[in-house]
Design goal:
Length: about 230
């Protein structure tokens, strides 16, 4: 394990501070998986243990603790009857009903805010796609009324035959499937409907399902394996 002396570089952000705390106090802090409620007043214990440490400051410790204790996995672990732990992992006071209720309410509000942000992001992406489609669509120009020269029936048949004979067969375009896990909101892709691939923009991703919007404005829900590189 790296010692404070060997750790020469000072932590520059909250992520690095949390990683350092997990390294120094593995019985107390965790980087993933289930978290454990922390002892009340643990900041003072940290400040005392790390008073000669050059990697983190007290301000950084406060910020890191605020982020750690407001994470969803920490709030989910703050259940009534769960024991709070100190820096060495020793169990102490138990979470009471009021503390558990406060944690559950904070978790619910945090998830609601995240959902609102996600909705706003999707709405913004849809608005952007609609605006682009409106700009790309050419304005309809009405042709002036004038009498066209109508060819005879025989002429039409001959012209069609000549056109069909002159037009060479076009080879089908080779499509490259979009690699799994690379689809992101706002990306331009091709969606194969029938025989012809159509350009589309990704609006929402839910596991293997993807919601896209065509250039016409139509929104379609499909699967990622139906998408191809634009």
């Amino acid at each position: 394990m790296t010692t404070p002396t060997e750790q020469a570089v000072k932590a520059s952000n909250v992520k690095e501070v949390l990683a350092y705390l997990v390294q120094r106090f593995p019985a107390c802090f965790s980087a993933n998986g289930a978290a454990r409620p922390l002892k009340i007043g643990i900041f003072q214990d940290l400040a005392e243990r790390l008073q000669d440490d050059s990697v983190v400051s007290k301000t950084q410790l406060r910020q890191a603790l605020r982020v750690y204790t407001s994470s969803w996995r920490y709030l989910e672990a703050t259940q009534e009857g769960a024991a709070r732990i100190d820096l060495d992992g020793n169990a102490g006071d138990l979470i009471d009903a009021a503390q558990a209720e406060h944690a559950a309410k904070t978790l619910e509000e945090s998830k609601a805010k995240a959902a609102e942000k996600r909705k706003a992001k999707i709405a913004e992406a849809k608005a952007s796609v609609t605006t682009k489609a409106a700009v790309a669509k050419p304005a309809y120009k009405k042709n002036p009324n004038k009498k066209a020269n109508i060819p005879s029936k025989g002429t039409k048949v001959n012209q069609k035959a000549e056109t069909a004979a002159a037009a060479p067969a076009q080879p089908a375009r080779a499509l490259t499937p979009v690699a799994s896990g690379t689809v992101v909101v706002g990306a331009s892709v091709l969606l194969k409907l029938g025989q012809n691939p159509m350009p589309a923009t990704v609006l929402e991703i839910s596991k293997d399902d993807v919601t896209v919007q065509l250039g016409s404005g139509m929104v379609i829900k499909t699967r990622q394996d139906s998408l191809y590189q634009a």
